[in-house]
């Protein structure tokens, strides 16, 4: 592709509304443009990356035995009424009516639709198991669309649904998908962790999320290096649940840690029974509101804390009664990966000590906080995590990190098939509800997550596997005939083996280099002053390494 012909509107300025680095770079690099809040067009470069990711997904899904199909984005309301989700899903579900006043939903997900197809077409155990997937735009009227493609209102998803005659079949397919997802995220170049997650509103029991590690991530995950176990912090408590249960946020906000130094103080102040009532505490630290989530069951948690922290040197261990781990928002700090010192019944005291700097025993946490601007503390910043059987047999620090949920695998069981009467005939000829699994990947979110992990201060550094082009060929001075002639020749030759972007524009070298760094193709070939001698420069985007080579040796250098 000749760059002079390519729609690639790069920008020097950081777009004002873009907080996330990936959002900034994707806009600046001319990969995407916003059309409405959370709604984007993929320009040619962005579209190429998206297609490369889809190719990897398709290869791995097909390899895992799944079959691709395509369902409609517009779904009749009646299907959602069968499962009750027309009501439950709430305002996130985008709804519309046709000219005959028939109601429809724009597909936020496709459990209902796929189940309706399968119930009509698949009635015997002989046809099971089956795994059907599609790659399609999904619509969710997110309360806070933000961070560019990371949380859109129209976004691209790969969603798969499997149907089984028995639980063992589902278990097997779940592992199969888990492995396929691992291969997919390995291949796109993400550093990620599969974490145990909360099954939430979708229903079902076993579920893992695939979390790409990134400071901008909206999820907090807890893991150890020495075991395979990792969990989403949501497994413990969430702010939403907290708000629903407590309903006393305003009152809790009045708690002042300078005055109310222990949980007991807070309990007295609020006139509640500490053991059973306080699940969360909000308090002011230097004028900022901070929340701690507290557990009621002292003894059980005592054991849990000890298990969870295994080999750690636990400060105040004897006193550890309630709470175990906590993390804080990155913003200023990046992912938190601090060994956790701990806490207790004295959660509030500890927090006061830690944040206000009173207690030497908590130096690690203090250190973390010392680098933060306390004014940046938000509601979410400090949370006490309560659940998850972390690394009981293994020692090693418990770590926190922020994650971007790029995928999720679910054992749904019969939640949808029972509600929708989707049955099959078993070997004895009896009707049983189909057993289901579902498996999603945020395709467009994955694209953005890769940029969060692969960039430097000059721009994106695409992993080879999904880069929009393999090679960026640059005629440094396209007005120089020798340079242009050699670059033209190389463009033709290289195009036989590589997808080449050829910067043939009559721009200044500085402009070309800045654009090249910004869009981040893995290999750059500069055709410059030594073109007459048949010498060019190969530059690697990852390391910045420059190799001068004759054109004759170029092929060897590139491999
Ligand atoms: P989140 O917790 O971020 O809201 P979710 O759990 O609601 O995501 P799922 O229903 O599990 O999302 O959808 C499957 C995948 O689709 C997610 O793992 C994520 O990668 C992607 N996804 C979900 N919502 C969005 C969105 N608003 N924008 C982009 N990708 C999304
Ligand atoms: Mg969601
Ligand atoms: Mg989620
Ligand atoms: Mg999810």
TrEMBL record:
Q: Where is the Aminoacyl-transfer RNA synthetases class-II family profile domain?
A: 38-463
EC numbers: 6.1.1.15
Family matches, as Pfam families: HGTP_anticodon, tRNA-synt_2b, tRNA_edit
This protein's UniProt keywords: Aminoacyl-tRNA synthetase, ATP-binding, Cytoplasm, Ligase, Nucleotide-binding, Protein biosynthesis
Q: Where in the cell is it found?
A: Cytoplasm
GO molecular-function terms, A-Z: proline-tRNA ligase activity
Q: Sorted alphabetically, which SUPFAM superfamilies does this protein's record hold?
A: Class II aaRS ABD-related, Class II aaRS and biotin synthetases, YbaK/ProRS associated domain
Q: What class of enzyme is it?
A: ligase
- Give the highest taxon in the source lineage: Bacteria
Q: What InterPro entries does the annotation carry? A: aa-tRNA-synt_IIb, aa-tRNA-synth_II, aa-tRNA-synth_II/BPL/LPL, Anticodon-bd, Anticodon-bd_dom_sf, Pro-tRNA-ligase_IIa, Pro-tRNA-synth_IIa_bac-type, Pro-tRNA-Synthase_IIa_type1
How does this protein assemble?
Homodimer.
- Domain remarks in the Swiss-Prot or TrEMBL record: Consists of three domains: the N-terminal catalytic domain, the editing domain and the C-terminal anticodon-binding domain.
Describe its function. Catalyzes the attachment of proline to tRNA(Pro) in a two-step reaction: proline is first activated by ATP to form Pro-AMP and then transferred to the acceptor end of tRNA(Pro). As ProRS can inadvertently accommodate and process non-cognate amino acids such as alanine and cysteine, to avoid such errors it has two additional distinct editing activities against alanine. One activity is designated as 'pretransfer' editing and involves the tRNA(Pro)-independent hydrolysis of activated Ala-AMP.
Family, as annotated: Belongs to the class-II aminoacyl-tRNA synthetase family. ProS type 1 subfamily.
HAMAP family per the UniProt record, alphabetical: Pro_tRNA_synth_type1 (MF_01569)
Record protein name field: Proline--tRNA ligase
Species name: Exiguobacterium alkaliphilum
Q: What is the lineage of its organism?
A: Bacteria, Bacillati, Bacillota, Bacilli, Bacillales
């Amino acid at each position: 592709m000749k760059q002079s012909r390519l729609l690639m509107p790069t920008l020097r300025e950081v777009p004002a509304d873009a907080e996330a680095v990936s959002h900034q770079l994707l806009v600046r690099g001319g990969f995407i443009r916003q059309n409405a809040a959370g709604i984007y067009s993929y320009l040619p470069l962005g579209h190429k990356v998206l297609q490369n990711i889809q190719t990897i997904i398709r290869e791995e899904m097909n390899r895992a035995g799944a079959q691709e199909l395509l369902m409609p984005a517009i779904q009749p309301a009646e299907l959602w009424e069968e499962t009750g989700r027309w009501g439950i899903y709430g305002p996130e579900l985008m709804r519309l009516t046709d000219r005959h006043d028939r109601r429809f939903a724009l597909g936020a997900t496709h459990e209902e639709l796929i189940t309706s197809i399968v119930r009509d077409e698949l009635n015997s155990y002989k046809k099971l198991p089956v795994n059907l997937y599609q790659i399609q735009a999904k619509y969710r009227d997110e309360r806070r669309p933000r961070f560019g493609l990371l949380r859109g209102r129209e976004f691209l998803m790969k969603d798969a649904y499997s149907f089984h005659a028995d639980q063992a079949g589902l278990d097997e397919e779940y592992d199969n998908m888990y492995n396929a997802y691992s291969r997919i995220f390995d291949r796109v170049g993400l550093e990620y962790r599969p974490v145990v997650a909360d099954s939430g509103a979708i229903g079902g029991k076993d579920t893992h999320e695939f979390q790409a590690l990134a400071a901008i991530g909206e999820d907090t995950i807890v893991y150890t290096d020495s075991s395979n176990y990792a969990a989403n912090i949501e497994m413990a408590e969430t702010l939403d649940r907290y708000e629903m249960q407590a309903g006393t946020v305003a009152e809790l906000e009045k708690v002042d840690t300078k005055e109310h130094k222990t949980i007991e103080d807070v309990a007295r102040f609020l006139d509640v029974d500490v053991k059973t009532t306080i699940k969360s505490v909000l308090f002011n630290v230097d004028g900022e509101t901070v929340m701690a989530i507290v557990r009621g069951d002292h003894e059980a948690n005592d054991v849990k804390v000890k298990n969870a922290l295994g080999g750690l040197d636990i400060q105040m261990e004897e006193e550890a009664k309630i709470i175990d781990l906590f993390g804080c928002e990155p913003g200023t700090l990046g992912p938190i990966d601090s060994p956790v010192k701990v806490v207790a019944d004295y959660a509030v005291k500890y927090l006061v000590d830690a944040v206000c700097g009173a207690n030497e025993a908590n130096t690690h946490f203090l250190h973390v906080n010392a680098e933060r601007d306390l004014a940046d503390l938000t509601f979410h910043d400090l949370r006490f995590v309560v659940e998850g059987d972390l690394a009981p047999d293994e020692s090693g620090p418990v770590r926190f990190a922020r994650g971007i949920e790029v995928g999720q695998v679910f054992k749904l069981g019969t939640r949808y098939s029972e509600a929708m009467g989707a049955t099959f005939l078993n070997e004895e000829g009896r009707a049983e509800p189909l057993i289901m699994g579902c498996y999603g990947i945020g395709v467009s979110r994955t694209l953005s997550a890769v940029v969060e992990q692969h960039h430097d201060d000059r721009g994106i550094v695409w992993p080879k596997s999904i880069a929009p082009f393999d090679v960026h060929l640059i005629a440094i001075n396209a007005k120089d005939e020798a340079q242009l002639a050699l670059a033209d020749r190389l463009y033709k030759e290289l195009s036989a083996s590589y997808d080449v972007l050829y910067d043939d524009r009559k721009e200044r070298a500085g402009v070309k280099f800045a654009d090249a760094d910004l869009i981040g193709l893995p290999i750059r070939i500069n055709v410059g002053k030594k073109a007459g001698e048949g010498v060019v420069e190969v530059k690697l985007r990852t390391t910045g390494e420059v190799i001068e080579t004759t054109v004759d040796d170029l092929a060897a250098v590139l491999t």
